[in-house]
Amino acid sequence: MLIQDLQVILKVAEFRSITAAANSLDMRVATASAAVKRVETHLGVELFIRTTRQLRLSPAGERYLPHCQQAVQLLDNAQQNVRDDSDVLQGEIRIALSSDLGRNVVIPWIDEFLISNPDVSVRSNISDSNIDFYRDSVDMALRYGSPTDASTYGFKICDIPRVVCAAPEYLKKQGKPQHPHELKNHNALLYQLREVVQDEWTFTQQQDTIKTKLVGNRSSNDGDLVRRWCVSGQGIAIKSCLDMADDLLNERVTPLLLDYQATPTELWLICPSRQSITPTVRRLRDLFRDKVAGLKTQLVNKGIIDND
Prior knowledge:
Elements: H1 3-15, H2 18-25, H3 29-43, E1 48-50, E2 55-57, H4 59-83, E3 91-97, H5 99-116, E4 120-126, H6 133-136, E5 140-144, E6 153-160, E7 162-166, H7 168-174, E8 189-193, E9 196-197, E10 200-205, E11 208-213, E12 218-220, H8 223-231, E13 236-240, H9 245-249, E14 254-256, E15 261-262, E16 265-271, H10 279-301
Parallel strand pairs: 3-4, 3-5, 8-12
Antiparallel strand pairs: 1-2, 5-16, 6-16, 7-13, 7-14, 8-9, 10-11, 10-15
């Protein structure tokens, strides 16, 4: 049984099709089918249940797949560590990104990274949903909020302030709120996370905590859509300063309630295990830290956020 056979198993599980897996790996279908057969013969069990219409993992396959993924990852890491002596990064980056941060902020950074490292490729998973590293076939995830899964390993990139903001056109019609309680008189653009609409915003001023319940005619589980609504003048949003940085710096939106601090968040680069930390992951970690620090400095210089 070869490492290439395990790679075929992972692709067949991902696509639920030997044909699609073979196409992805640029090999003949017969070659991929023979690889699956070799692994199943070696293990003495069937990893896939085959019908005339579909192919899916058997119970044994579901138990085997995570170990197969870890084995392939360990071998890939070993290969990458050997190559690291030449300081040349190679291979595919499989990264999960949240919708707004990914599309509008991070992807341009990764584009720069690929130009500097032409032997590296990227496969991005853009979604605000929770990431399952084995189900979603990703090697790392850049996410807001500190990790809650003790089995994962992560690097904190930075503390991230949140900013309340609205487009100048909206404020011209509706006026600027001067206190968090005045937000209830405005149209809130609400973010929905795991079926829960975040319609209560929390602020602090010195030692006081202020909670405000909001109403609005728009909510979405897509952070990028909430940002677009805000920029187009549909209401007031509370967002990560990174998500809104370009709009804030170019005055497409106006920061509000600067005397009050909205509850901040954190940005983390998360990996499924310590063994999955490759030189590429570390290089991306450093890139993200530098880029985030640069954006925050620009926002501080314009008086939009406080200096840490």
